[in-house]
Amino acid sequence: MIEINQLTKKFDDFTAVDNLSFTVREGEVLGFLGPNGAGKSTTMKIITGFLSATSGTVKVDGHDIATDPLAVKSLIGYLPEGAPCYPDMTVLQFLDFIAAVRGFSGEEKQRRIDKVVRDVELGAVCHKTIDTLSKGFKRRVGLAQAILHDPKVLILDEPTDGLDPNQKHQVRQLIRNLAKDKIVIISTHILEEVSAVCSRAIIIAGGRILADGTPKELEARSRYYGAVSVQLTEDFDLHRAVATVSEVSGVEVSDVSGRRHVLLPREGAQIFSKVLDLAQNERWPVAEFHLVEGLLEDYFRSVTQGANARVETSDKRTGATQ
Fold first, then answer.
1. Angle (deg, nearest 10), helices 106-119 and 135-147
2. Is the pLDDT of residue 199 over 50?
3. Does pLDDT of 315 surpass 60?
4. 3-class DSSP state for residue 157?
5. What is the CATH number of the domain that holds 148?
6. What is the residue range of 166's domain?
7. Strands 29-33 and 55-60
């Protein structure tokens, strides 16, 4: 288990992480979300021991990163943003080096290298130097070094950055498989990735937690939760059609594009069956009609809108702090 208690990190008079507290248990895949400058990467660097905290504690499997850093680092696989690797080494040379640093030798070292090469599909580039690889392959090399020692905790900063759709699917499946007996924390800007991979999501801004729940729970807080999407075949005054019927009073019609509209219910209201009955009875020219479960992107925007001013301050004082 990872236990973070009242974690704070300051850079001079700028507070990047502000009294953050949460726990992550084995088997959880935690999506760590926030706008640029929210404190995501700073928090991950403190957990892994790359940065020290100003105050507060981080414990991994009972070990405090401040007092027992080697024990914590032995439990963690870390893929930082940009996946820095030695560019003049071949992929195999680099993985051999990482395996040796992790304390493996002989047949065990070779077995682990062979396994991650298969898992991340690096066979085609094993003998190429890292500086000649595409961004996607460099990302996969970074992921391979993070999982080579089969860590209890995986901390991944933008793990699918630069990958094509097939590679993203493969890496996401790999993360799901790894998460069965590990703790996985993923920092990502791809909200679709959170819904696809994560069992839980935390949204932070200004170094503070704004929301914590499963992706479905956060989607349910979106103003689009329970909304109805309607695509019309011809011009039709949907605003008037809805406004004049008491059964759907309070429903807001949002014009998305052309003849596509979204009908937004009052909070907690269920309108699908009522709108469907109305559309059939009044013979609306409907081409497509479906329920909107909720949009994580919409909820993310709604809780982080005040972050932009803080990001500008962060960039001026300390550079890009994530």
1. 140
2. yes
3. no
4. strand
5. 3.40.50.300
6. 2-219+299-318
7. unpaired
